[in-house]
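SAMPLE LOG
Freezer: B-3
Tube label: C17
Construct: single chain, 188 aa
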Amino acid sequence: MAHASPIPGDRHARALFLRRWCVPILARLHADGGCKFVTLTHTLKAQPTAVRDALDHLISIGLVRRNSGYGHPLRPEYLMTRKGEALAPAAANLDERLIALDLRELGLRRWTLPVLGAVGSLQPARFVALSTALGDITPRALSLALRDLGGAHLLTREVVDEHPPRTEYVLRPRGLALARAYEAFNFG
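STRUCTURE (predicted):
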C-alpha cells in the first residue's frame, strides 16, 4: 500500500528521516568527505548502537557505503554514494539550522520534520489533512509532534470559532525557516 508523503519525489529523502542520526551523519560525511565510525560517535555525541543503526539504514537506502580500501575491517570508514552526495548539502543545512535554533533534540525525532514540512505545505493545516498527507503516521504520533512543535514555538494552534469548531495549525517564522530547510530534500 502506497503512502502519501510530504516529500513526493524522492524515496531516499523520505527514508532519511526514519532514523534519528541520519541527517547529522550525512552532514558530517559532507563536511569531512568520509569518516570513521568512532569519529562519528564522538563528534555527534551519540550512542554507538544508534549510530550503527543509522549507518546501516543509510547503507540500505543507498546513501552511504563502506570504504572498502580503508584499513582494518573492525574500524571502517564510511563514504557517501552519489545519491548521498546529492542529499548531503540539504542535510548539512538542516543540521546547522537545528543546532543554531537549539532544536536538534526535537528536530531529530522521527516525525518532527515531516510534520513541520506537511504543515508548511498545507497551511493552514488541519489534523485530518496532516494525517492524510503523512500517510503512515499514527494519530498519537501526530498529536505528540504537533504539541512538541507548538511548545518549541514553531507553530501555532488556532481554534476557529465555527459550528462545529475546527483546529488549524500555522507555522511561525522560526518554523517556516526550518520547514524551508526540510523542503530542500524535495527533488520531485
